[in-house]
Amino acid sequence: MLKKGGKMGTKISEFFEHIEPSCIRKADIVFSQRQSQNPTENIKAINVAIGNVSLPTHPAMLKRFLNPKDENLIKGTWRYTQAEGIDEINDAFKNIIRSFLKPECKPNLYSLVDTGGSHIMRLVMLGVCGKSSSGEKPLLVLDPVYTNYVSIGGELGVNVISVNRNLMPDGVFSEVSIDYLENLIEMYKPGGMLIIPYDNPSGTLTTQKQINEYAKICMKHNMFLISDEAYRGLYYVDGIDYAPSIWNISEQDVKGIESAGIRISIETLSKVFNACGLRMGALVTDNKLFFEQARAANTTYLCPSAIDQYIGGALAHESMSDLQNWVKTLREYYKKILKNLYTNFKKLDPNIIVTQPQASIYSIVDVRNIVKPGFDMDDFVMYCANDGFVEVSGQKLTLLVAPARGFYKNQNIYANTQARIACVVSESEMELVPYLFVELIRQYEQKRLMGLKASNL
After folding, report:
1. Which residues partner with 245 through β-bridges?
2. Spans in the chain with pLDDT lower than 70
3. 132 shares a domain with 181
4. What is the predicted pLDDT for the residue at 136?
5. Is pTM, for the whole model, over 0.85?
6. The domain containing residue 334 runs over which residues?
7. CB 247 within 8 A of CB 215
């Protein structure tokens, strides 16, 4: 379990008193404590709990980092930039978006940048939602949802309501019922609906047709349509000509969309451009007032890193074909990794439920069919971080995964047996993930059941 520090004389806030680390970070914190307390144990952790991409970043950004040309940066004059970020980095995000649009889609885009996509999530929720105490304008999401939305909602006092999706025995998530969705909207009157077209954590692909339907619903109910497009272009199904996106909704698809001003996308360089540590995200909208007020709200935080803006700004000058080819290469890479992950799990134990992702870089694994009653994935993850290891070719290894319960806003009967795996380590390490997972499950279950038996004596 996570070890906390000693008591302090001055009482901390109720929020601090009850906050726990994110489900994607907790295992890493606990394993770090294990290492510091047992420095001679010599165990390596393969960390697939967090989507911390290990591939090299885009060469244009790397070139800027290694050989900067900006005179102020070179001589050490590192001043604040505009609150919304310099023009070049905003042009970079717009260039990325426009490189994947249908010819007839030419949205008028307003953009501001901040320190990573998570800060953008916070800003969007401030602009779209009301306080939970008022009961007004909650955020509507599809369960399971990226854990940060629920966490940030809690920090801001924003109510998050969700539409259930269940992982079926065949490894596919159930579809969203449009009728149920509309009933929820009429009941709770949300300020906006969040979609993640290349879904984290489920790996589900939201088609352009579905996005268009969501846009119609949002227009009908005077809601913002918010799209987290961190994994734009990472889809693994055939027959797609243009990457599904809220910016690929044409006037012919949804009448009035160009003047409605309901679209907001959350952008980042972390995933598709392999720059998680760069911390550069953007809020992009077709609503001028929303942009202006988002900028006003963000002046409190002065500006994001000028150095990171400069590095990311390199993508403003990349051609459409370069950006498309870059994403195509990543798509082929992740498709292979995800397919091998599924195949290797099924070879080890056909009874494990494993998703076959259509998009993004994650897989959900469900052990409901191979464990005994009372199994808890959170506890298993802590076992792996605190105690467990498997010896492979003379090396002691453990595995860090993210317990899926942290991705569910609603109670889900299968959340306790599910984990999310991020395909972010090297290919050779990804090959080890299924074996380590299955072996550690067997270890854990043996110890757990022996403990239960002993307690009943």
Report:
1. none
2. 1-8, 452-457
3. yes
4. 85
5. yes
6. 14-55+325-455
7. no
